[in-house]
Amino acid sequence: MQEEPSGEVGGQGRRALGFQRHFPKRTSQHALIVHLMKLPTIGRKSAERLAFHLLKAPAEQAEELSAAILRMKERLGYCSRCFNVTEEDPCPVCRDPNRDTKLLCVVEEAMDALAIESAGGYRGRYHVLGGCLSPLKGVTASDLHFEELERRVAEEEIEEIILATNPTVDGEATALYITQQCQSREVRLSRIAMGLPMGGSLEYADEQTLQQALLGRTRIVDR
Ligand SMILES: [Zn+2]
Questions:
Q1: Smallest Cα–Cα separation from 133: which of 116, 118, 145?
Q2: Average pLDDT, integer, range 135-150
Q3: Is the domain covering 14-75 a CATH 1.10.8.420 domain?
């Protein structure tokens, strides 16, 4: 969804001044809008729209929403083994005896594990790094769960690691870091295939995606 960038409240722009005129500081509505604007993809307009929606909604709806947020904050934590978000530690995936314990899928964020899980078909376990290496954002190896990954590979006798970091410069650098980290270990490494989306068209694909699609081709008939 396209959303306007969240401008700073109280800034010098005309729009910011307009915002203050409509919602003067120290009012409850201003405070709510400021908090909503801190959420990802929510700009000023969306924050105002949501605040007005909540204003018109029955009181129970606002109460249920705030209670759901608090309940989630109280109950959700991180799995001490895979660092996925969970209400129980270890998480249900780590505890599931029917999962392939020798197969590990490495992802940047818990949301990525959720996406793979929702897609279905994957029967191994996960390891959530907590982000990706990013010199620009100041994220270094010590900020991510690399050491824990190395320990798991040894202790859980992992046979294959699927590198499912994002197809971005930082995601690729993170995948390369893990490849180097595991060089001396008896573990197979694979990278998720990148290329064209299902239902997509070659005509509209960008050059990099097409290059990746060709590099990641799979053989249909082997002679
Ligand atoms: Zn877990």
A1: 145
A2: 95
A3: yes
